[in-house]
Amino acid sequence: MSSSLQHRGVVESVTNDTVIVSVMPESACAGCHARSVCGERGEKREIVVKTPYAAEYTPGERVIVALEHKRMGLVSVVWSYVLPLIVLVGVLFGARALGLEDGIAALSSMVALTLYFIVLYLMRKMFDKQIKFTIIKEL
Asked: Is the pTM of this model over 0.70?
């Protein structure tokens, strides 16, 4: 597996073409001061992996889940962290440049950010098609 973003997990359930894997954060994440920034909160989470080989996996089996391509991680970071920051700061400074008061400019930037996340939510099907996970059995 050529991806650098890998997680160990346990198969929770299997359907015809889907494997649901329960992933716990790595022990290194527990002591990391930046874990809240990267989205790791120390909680168990589930990853849904679509694969034609789902029948080869059984619940309770230990597996490794990874992003199919390395750039998918970068794309996720851009959509979830970089672009919202640009929207927030851009609208804030744009509103101030138009002569709006600080409170109205801040409120405008928050409304714009809310609209951004609504659009992002509506685009979730597109992201499901683009961001794919692979799964292999752990040795």
From this structure: no
